[in-house]
Each structure stands twice: as C-alpha cells, then as structure tokens.
Specification:
Blueprint (H helix, E strand, L loop, with lengths): L15 H14 L22 E6 L2 E6 L10 H16 L5 E6 L10 H9 L25 E5 L2 E3 L1 H7 L3 E5 L3 E3 L13 H9 L1 H8 L4 E3 H6 L5 E3 L2 H16 L3 H24 L1 H8 L3 H12 L9
Parallel strand pairs: 2-3, 3-4, 4-6, 5-7, 6-9
Antiparallel strand pairs: 1-2, 7-8
Helix pairs in contact: 5-6
Length: about 300
C-alpha cells in the first residue's frame, strides 16, 4: 500500500470570495503579525524522496510520515522536517488544527537506530533550528494549537511516543502498539515513561514497558490512550480529519486558552522528568548491553544481557 489514503495529494480549492471571507474572519479573531513576520506552512506533496508530506485543507493541515521502505522509522532529517512543519503550523494564522499520520503500511516503528546511534551515544541532542518545535514536546515552547494523531499498523517506541504527545488520538483497528526498548537494551526515552504512566496508569504502563509485549488498538482504548477506533487505516484518517474540522470550527482563541490552561497543570509536574530523558537514553547507548542487543537483533537470536 504505497499511500495510506488516496485522498492525500488532492488540494482543497477556494474561490476568491471564499478565500477573502476566511481571511477576514481569521483577522477578526486573531490579528496577524506584520506581513514580514507571518510564517506559513508550505505544502510538500508525496514523493519518493519526501520523508514528511504536508497538505493544506482549508483551516487544517495533514502532515504525513513517509519512509514506508523502513516502516516509517524516524531518522535525524525526518525528525528535523517534522519539527519544522510543526513550527510552521504553530505560526501560520490560517491553520487551526493538524492531523499527523503515516503513509504506507505502518504509522511508525520508531527511531531509526542506525541513523541516530552515533549522535545519541555521543550525547548530542538532535539538531534543531530556530524555526522548529519538538515533536515530542519535551522542551519549551509547546504548541498552542491542537494535534490529532492517527495511528495504524505498527506504532512502536518513538512512534508510540509521538502518538502519546498528541492531544487527541485515533487508531485503526489494525494498529499494533509497542514500547519494547527494554528488550533491546534501551529504554523509552521519548516521553513514554512520563506520558504512558500519566495516561494509562502505573500498572498498565509498566506491564508493557517492562516486558516489551505489544498491545492492540482495543487495549490502547481500554487504557485510555486512544479516544476512537476506526475499522480501516483509511477510515481512521477520515476520522482524524473530521475531528480536526470540528476543532477548527470552534473559536481559535478559546481552543488556545483551553490547551494553555490544561498545560498549566501538566507541564510543571512533568518538565523536570522530560528534560532528563535525553541524558538517560544516551547513557544506555554506551553500555555493553546495548551493543549486545544490537548484535543479537542482527543475528536473529535472544540477547544475553549482563547488566553492564
């Protein structure tokens, strides 16, 4: 399945009158900065060398992970492009909600370990420019506008942590979730140790993180992580778009105030724990157990960990 939805790639067309009306309403609700300072989210169509796609549909945007040849595993350039797309969404006054999804058979199997290994082992943070926002929300500033995440197929590790970082989460019935880093000599360093526990409760989160077992879309909903399940990946994306349109129909200042108020409760409690994740994650990449985990995976055998 080269593209999760045949709808991706078609652009919404507004007449001149409709475009003027939308722009006038947006200015009335939220005055835009001077023209020179306005940031807009530019469309990036689906293509063989495009790791993150962007499509605008009126007041919502669709952002897609597009590395299906490697199960949408995220390498440094893909993370940087996603961070840039989220920054431009945040600062584009014409957009009110974003839907994040994955092209191909899976949402994402997580981090591309080979691509990240050298920088993580050296303790170097992922490169980020001035016009980026952390897709995992581990550092300030945070998005002030909503993110709807749609998962399907394999949604593992960093992929699941991106899912957890969303405001509203929708899954296809075929979604398979996992936080199995401990079975590879790593640990969930993208926020699951904080958000999975918060959303699902200690016992539910530890049951899966400490064993490495995977779980279903229905189990994700039972734990309170997933808000809606759709029968197919295409239906899940449609449900995500419908949810984003409902949000976009609400008062944008009210939506921002709601998120800001909720973050005043969550952020002070979680900030310290989230800020320490990179250092802890990096330390494990320098252990003998991590090397053994990589070797065992390559050789197709169970790892033999020594706690070193």
């Amino acid at each position: 399945m080269p593209n999760m939805s045949p709808k991706i790639g078609r652009r919404a067309v507004l007449t001149g009158a409709a475009l003027t009306a939308v722009a006038t309403a947006a200015r009335a609700q939220s005055p835009a900065p001077p023209a020179a300072q306005v940031t807009t989210l530019t469309e990036v169509p689906l293509g063989p060398s495009t790791s993150v796609t962007v499509e605008r549909r009126g007041e919502i945007a669709l952002v897609g992970l597009n590395r299906p040849f490697i199960q949408n595993r995220i390498d440094p350039p893909t993370r940087a492009r996603l961070a840039e797309a989220l920054y431009r969404y945040e600062h584009d006054p014409s957009l009110r909600a974003v839907v994040l999804f994955g092209h191909g058979e899976n949402f994402s199997r997580g981090i591309d370990v080979d691509a990240f290994q050298a920088s993580i082992a050296a303790g170097r943070r992922p490169a980020s420019g001035a016009e980026t926002l952390d897709p995992l929300g581990k550092s300030q500033p945070h998005l002030s506008k909503p993110v709807v995440v749609v998962a399907h197929g394999d949604t593992w590790n960093l992929g699941h942590e991106i899912y957890l970082a969303g405001d509203i989460r929708i899954a296809a019935a075929n979604a398979r979730f996992g936080q199995d880093e401990n079975t590879h000599g790593r640990f969930p360093g993208g926020g699951a140790t904080v958000r999975f526990v918060r959303e699902a409760g200690w016992g539910n989160a530890m049951r899966y993180m400490l064993t490495g077992d995977h779980w279903s879309a229905e189990e994700s909903r039972r734990m309170g992580i997933t808000q809606e399940i759709a029968p197919t990946p295409e239906a899940a994306l449609d449900a995500g778009i419908a949810m984003a349109r409902k949000i976009a129909a609400c008062g944008p200042l009210s939506i921002k105030a709601t998120l800001r108020s909720a973050h005043q409760v969550i952020d002070p409690v979680e900030a310290d724990a989230l800020s320490k994740l990179d250092a802890e994650y990096s330390a494990l990449y320098r252990t003998e157990d991590f090397i053994e985990g990589r070797r065992a995976e390559a050789e197709g055998r169970p790892p033999r960990y020594q706690g070193k």
